[in-house]
Amino acid sequence: MSAAVLEARGIGRTFGAVRALTDVTLELRAGEVTALVGDNGAGKSTLVKILSGVVAPDAGRILLGGEPVRIARPHDARALGIATVHQDLGLCENLDVVANLFLGAEPHRWSLLRSLRMERTARDLLASLDVRIPDLRTPVASLSGGQRQSVAIARALLGEPRVVLLDEPTAALGVEQTAQVLALIRRLRDRGLAVLVISHNLADVRAVSDRIAVLRLGRDAGVFRTSDTATETVVAAITGAGAAA
Amino acid sequence: MISAFLDRPVPGGGRRVRLPRPSGGEPGALPVVAGLALIAAVFGSLNGHFLSAENLTNLALQMAATGTIALGIVLVLLLGEIDLSVGSVSGLCAVVMTILNVHRHFPSGVAVLLALGVAALIGLAHGLMFTVLRMPSFVVTLAGLIGWQGLMLYLLGREGTINLPFDGPVAKLSDTWLPAWLSWTIVVVAGTGYLAAALLVRRARIRSDLPVSGPVPLALRTGGLVVLLGAAVAVMSGDRGVPLTLVIFGGLVVVLDLVLRLTVPGRWVYAVGGNAEAARRAGIAVLRVRLLVFAGASVLAGAGGILAASRLSAVNQSSGGSDILLNAIAAAVIGGTSLFGGRGRAYAALLGILVIQSVANGMLLLNVDSSVRFMVTAGVLALAVAIDSAARGGRR
Questions:
Q1: What is the CATH number of domain A4-92+147-239?
Q2: Could you report the per-residue pLDDT of A103-162, keeping only the tens digit for each?
């Protein structure tokens, strides 16, 4: 068991009168997929937003490789090697796959785009992730949902991150495309990345994760090893049915 | 089974031959080119003078001013915004240039540059109101449409007209015709330049083991370009020659197209137009891109206004007025620029203004009343937008 790459300790956050998160702790380890589950409003998105610098926490500390870090802006998170793929993917549908992969970070010389280098890197990256897109110069608008998700994840990897946060990567995908995306997530793990997957779908969570962290009403509701935990136990933690036991 | 086989690329396979496709799955230039052929056939058969060298040269001369303004419209449409002030800005800019040149005796070149500088400031002001004050671009530029025309009328004062000296450099601009040898040199240089650039890119792509299109489409494209340019030069050289203003307009189109496709700011314009929120999150300075585009649109409008003043050898109260704005917007849209942002190329301005001016010119030759001319132009515009909407709808 390797040490945690990213640790969030005692995280708290309120929005007005609403306590979104209270004293939440989360550990992400290298080469491991952690699933973050919980009912609607349990605080999953807020926690990911805090880790990706979109929202600042009111309380708690974030440690990266054991060192305390400050993540005030999305840029800070990226600079620290924490890449986030939001649920809406953030792709420009009118641009092609290559342009989307390098969006905002285009390699250039005298502000001329280095198109060949971009296309080469894109091809190699997607091939290494076994993502199949016949023509990298087709606009993202004409790709399938699974391919778009794959492009968004591949883009997150271009910054050579240590941690990848995926918000609902399989929502709204068909069976086969979900399988493709889950396979891609496993390849991220095999590359030694620390991966966090938010999901509503416990079947997907079971298929891809090593550990499951449960949030309930903004508080920790347990961390389980996927391999030796029954789904019912996780469901009980999510709904709070097991709290009395 | 068969379709699954066809869809799968060969893993690790070498180069694949790709069919040439219209840029980015858009309807591309094909409908417009077909429309142009149709217009030429219809008016050519109805009036023998339409396809004469003299008339086609006139057509080329008429295009430059509004075409340059349409180029600016293409820019703002790429952002998914609109600029209604380009007509007024073109008139104001022409008046500023003329006053500096005629009344203040600035050299023509300096007057033109200062006027374009004023246009840039106007565009910047529009951009700031749009970005910082978060006013809709429609409203900002509607205010501009009214306000800058007011300023222009104020500057013109009671006379209402200022003539440019007929033998001055600005007026000369519209009365300069390229000698045949120079026109043909441009055709040859453009053809070989295009071919050489394409071959260089092709070789680099093969070296990097990236997919390339076969040599036949490349030869066809180069041949098509040379034939089109050659035909235009042959026709116009049969009359007075290629007008310099057309070369200026064509040069602007080519330069803007290269900037949009090959530079980082150009890529960012498409990104912001496609998904501004995604662009912002990707670290693109959305605000700066927007300011740049609005300033660029106003500068191009100003340049168009100066070309119009040059052609008239004067500025007057109707400079930049009447249907210039509507024609410029219609040209950009008819040429294939999407109203929804992020899709289109600089060539849209050229193709669109060709359609608009051909229709106007042909109807004028046929002595058709302007009422009919308006309705036909409206029909063409509606058709172009329908194609755009259908192409967009088909992708969702």
A1: 3.40.50.300
A2: 988 889 988 999 889 999 999 999 888 888 888 888 998 888 888 988 998 998 888 899
Residues in chain B, pLDDT under 70: 1-28, 392-396
In B129-247, DSSP assigns E strands to: 161-163, 177-178, 242-243
Three-state SS at A195 = strand
- DSSP string across A51-71: HTTSS--SEEEEEETTEEE--
**Amino acid B257: pLDDT:** 95
> In chain B, what are the domains?
28-41+48-179+241-388 (1.10.3470)
Across the interface, do B279 and A104 touch by the CB < 8 Å criterion? yes
| Residue B276, min C-alpha distance to chain A (Å) | 8
Rounded CA Rg of chain A: 18
Rg of chain B taking only CA atoms, in angstroms: 22
> Closest Cα partner for A163 from A70, A90, A103, A80?
A80
Residues of A in contact with B210 (CB under 8 A): 116, 119-120, 123
Give the residues across from B314 on adjacent strands.
Answer: B163
Say if the Cβ atoms of A116 and B205 lie within 8 Å: yes
Pairing of strands A67-69, A112-113: unpaired
Cα(first)–Cα(last) distance of chain A, in Å?
Answer: 30
Query: Distances in Å between the alpha carbon of B108 and those of A208, B99, B118?
Result: 71, 11, 15
Amino acid at B108: S
Give the CA distances from residue B247 to residues B63, B187, B198, B222, in Å, rounded to whole numbers and listed in that order: 11, 11, 23, 19
DSSP A168: S
Give the angle subtended at the CA of B182 by the CAs of B178 and B184, to the nearest 5°: 110
Q: How far B357 CA lies from chain A's nearest CA (Å)?
A: 30
Q: Are strands A163-167 and A194-198 parallel, antiparallel or unpaired?
A: parallel
Do B303 and B158 contact (CB within 8 A), yes or no? no
- Shortest CA distance from A112: residue in chain B: B263
The average confidence (pLDDT) of chain A is 87
**Among A219, A163, A177, which residue's Cα sits nearest to residue A51?**
A163
Using one digit for the tens of pLDDT, what is the confidence trace for A31-66? 999 999 988 888 888 899 899 888 888 888 899 888
Structure tokens at B259: 């900037």
**How far apart are alpha carbons B366 and B378 in whole angstroms?**
18
Contact assessment for residue B204 and residue A120, using Cβ atoms and an 8 Å cutoff: no
pLDDT digits (tens, 9 = 90+) for B11-43: 333 334 343 344 444 556 777 888 888 888 999
Candidates B18, B204, B270; nearest CB to A95: B270
Token pair listed for A62: 């974030």
Q: What ipTM was assigned to the predicted interfaces of this complex?
A: 0.84
> What is residue B28's predicted lDDT score, i.e. its pLDDT?
64
Chain A residues whose C-beta sits inside 8 Å of any chain B C-beta: 74-75, 86, 89-96, 99, 103-106, 108, 111-113, 115-116, 119-120, 123, 127, 132, 134-135, 138-139, 141-142
- Distance, in Å, from the CA atom of B289 to the CA atom of B302, rounded to the nearest integer, reads 20
DSSP secondary structure code for residue A25 in this structure: E
- Cα B383 from Cα A3, distance rounded (Å): 63
Q: What pLDDT was estimated at residue B96? A: 96
